[in-house]
Each structure stands twice: as C-alpha cells, then as structure tokens.
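debug: dumping io for the single-chain case to check the tokenizer round-trip. Nothing else runs in this session.
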Amino acid sequence: MTIRRALVAVAIAAVAVHLLSLGGGFVGDDGQIIAVNPLVHGWSGAGLQAFKNPYWPPAFGGALYRPLAIVTYTLDWHLSGGSASWFHAVNLLWNAGASVMVGLLAASWVAGDPAIKARAALAAGLVFAVHPVHVEAVANIVGRAELMATFFTLLAVYVAVEHGNWWLSAVVWLLGLFSKENAVVAPALIGAAWLAGVGAGRPTRARLAWFAASWLGAGAGYAVLRHHALGSYAPLWTPAPVFVGLSALEVRLTAVAALTDVVRLLLFPAVLRVDYSPAERSAVTSMADPNFLLGCLLLVGGAALLAWAWRRNRKVEALGLAWVGIAFLPVANLVFPIGVLVAERTLYLPSAGLALVVGALMARAPARLGYGLGFAAVVAALATRAVLRIPVWHDNLTLAQSVRRDSPNSYQGHMDAAGILLERGRPDLSLTAAGRAIEVYPLDPRPYLIAAHAAMRLGRWASADSLLRAADRRCRPCGGVYSAEVAEAISLGDSTSADSLAAHVRRLAGSGP
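debug: decoded output
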C-alpha cells in the first residue's frame, strides 16, 4: 500500500464511521450559536462582522471568540437553507481532513521505506479517524470549532517542521486561533517536534527568529481582535461548577484527579459521558484523596514512559506522548480553571499524540498477519463504539436522556430536562426537574433561573422572585446567564416572563426601578 492510498483509506473511514450523524438536528449549543443566531442568518456573518462579534450571540452572553467557525456556519446556513444535515456533512469533511493530517505527520516522521511509512500513516490515521472520544466533537455541530482548530494546528505543525515555512505556518496557526482558542499550543508542538529531531530538522537561529517573530505578530493580532470583540459583554458564569467555592490549590487537586478520566477516555473509551458535573464528579480537597493520588500516579507514569521512549531514541513515540500533554494543558484546569472539569470534545487535539504513538509502534511491528489482524480488531472495536455513541447527539431529548442514563448522579441531567419540559409547554414538570437539580447541586444559578421562568409561566410570582434572589446570591456579576434566559423566554413567545426577567436584570444593574 502506498502512502496516498493509506490516506484515502483514512479519509473514507473518518467519514463512514460518523455517517449516522447526518440524521441529527441542531443539538445543545447548536441552537443558540447557529439556529437562532442573527449573525449566522445574515450574510454579514461570512465577512468582517464575524471578526467583530463574539461567538455566542449577545442575547446569550456574548462569550468566546471563534470568528472563522462563525464564517463557516454562515456559509452553510445560506448554502443549505438551514439544513442540519448539511452542517453535519461539513463536520465529517473537517474530521476527515484532520485524520488525514495525522496520518501524513506519522508517515513523514517515521523512518523507513515507503511501505513502512504507509503502514504508520494508516495506523495513526485510522485510530484518530474512528476514536469514540471524538463523537462529541464530530456529531455536535458546534464541535466544528474543535475540528477546525485541530486541522489548522496539524497543518501549521506540518508546514513548519516538514517545510520550514515560517510565514505560512503563522498564517495557518492564526486560522486555528480564529477557530478555537486551544490552537494556541501549535508553537509548542512545533518546538517539541524540533527537539525530537523529526522532519526536516531544527531551523537555523536566523530562521528560528523569523518563526518567533511571526508567532508573536499573529498572536498579538489575534489578542487585539479578541479584546475588541469581547470587551463590552458581561461575562458568563465561567468556572466549572465543581470548582465553585474551591481554593486555587483545591482546583488543581481536582484537576489532577480528573486525569483518571482523561487517560481512560484515551485508552479505554468504553464508557462515554456528555457530562462530568457534580455530583457525578466531586471536588478534591485533600492530597490524601485516592483519586488525587491515582492522578499523580498517572502523571508520574506518563513522564516515566516519555523518558523511556526518549532514552531508547524512539523519537515519534516520545513526541506523541509529549503532544498529548502539551495539547491537553490549556484545558487541563492546571494553569487556569476553565468552564468544564472534563469534556470529551477537548481530547480531540490531544488524541492526535496517541495516534502518532500507535502509528510509530505499528511501523516497528513485524509485517505479520497476526499483528495486522490484532490491529484491525482494535480499530473495529473503536469504530463500533463510535457508531453506537452517535445517536446520543440526535436531538436535545436524546442528549438529556443520555446524561440521565450515563451520569445518574449529575445535576446536569435534571437541569437539561427542566429546560426541555419548559420548551414543551410543561412548566409544572419543569419546575420539579429544576428543583431536583438544585437539590443535587445548589451552587449553579442556572437551575434557579429555569425554575423562576417556570414559576412565572405558572403565575407563581412570589416563588419566582424567591428563586431569582437565590440565583443572584450564586452568580454576581453574571449578566450573560440572565440574558440567555431572557432570550429563551423570547424564543418561546413568552413575553411576560421575558419582560419580568429583563426587569430583574435591570434592577441588578442599578439602571431600573
């Protein structure tokens, strides 16, 4: 098999394993970011306005900055007339592109004749293409930001390491940043590749200076545009719920404990979850906690494995292990806390490192039938698990049901159910579900707001006021969350509740009676 044929096989597998997602609709955040977003529905979203506005619509808080993703959503909306199937089909192509890039890097970095390189490309690309942990990023339309950021990061690494092109690598990196923030790791990945000695070799000092200058310029330009777009919006309730009330040390202890989930998801993704919120996952407040100790053991084990690969001159394996750590660091909650403790979509870029390790191992393995059959069995198992996972992302109801089933201790499932019941005209049942969410985890303001909205629909104004005051105590300032509930009321045609919620927001801001 040639390298080209191996990459074609990878692309076909990446599309084929996710074909069921074509039947899905706009699910979860797809609704606010795409389905009801005026910027996406107008042609201005395909131009400069995408770079002047936040990723989330202002009515839903105006958070994050991913203008290139907005551009693609806008083009898709107009080309397809708002067809969710079209959006999903485009996601399949982005996933295929990222999978091919992983295979291409493996072929480029593994030593050997063309047949060995083709074997590495096929192994690495297939593992990446069918890995079940990628289903969330591929089957949820807004996961495209993850797909795009990963594709451009991989391409930036390839252009820099294989061709030494500093300006093109910087341009591609900037496209990745405009897709999602986690592309920020591209320069570090390039540096790791140079240190490992793969590809065309390390650049001269003069060329390295050009690389550094181009990255500095691209990063500064991105930062200025991001600040301009986001500076005037109220922040959303950003910390992961499990981190609320924790000290900086306790946040890191909890993050280290969560590494057990990360390693399991990468190596043994049999159990997948949409949600890893309290009380499904609990905070760690002591260094004696067994989960923290296990996380530390995994960290030490990973570092030891990396050192072993480095000493044995297994360059690609060492680079792959380093890649996992570098790519995961921005979302690991170790440097700074983010909005989730664990999210499977955030492992899309880190898993490329695992795929590179597998590609290098298969390139070294003897070309025997037994090895090939064993690898084929692993790929088939991964693909089967991915296919079985896709129906979870069919619609909001299947998503909420999966949370209730897979994470029965989490408050998120009850909160999601409350929102769906409210949308379906059952405020009585919505109030009950929101109450259950509050009982499980009373620190998130969102269930209180949903419950207040439901109480307003039922005419229980005193209860609504009490619930709003409870939300205020748990979220201030938090204008984005309130704005999102106002927008939800408007979308349901509930002008009375929308006006009441908006009046409450004005009172909080001190601009109204």
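debug: round-trip ok. The chain has a mean pLDDT of 93.
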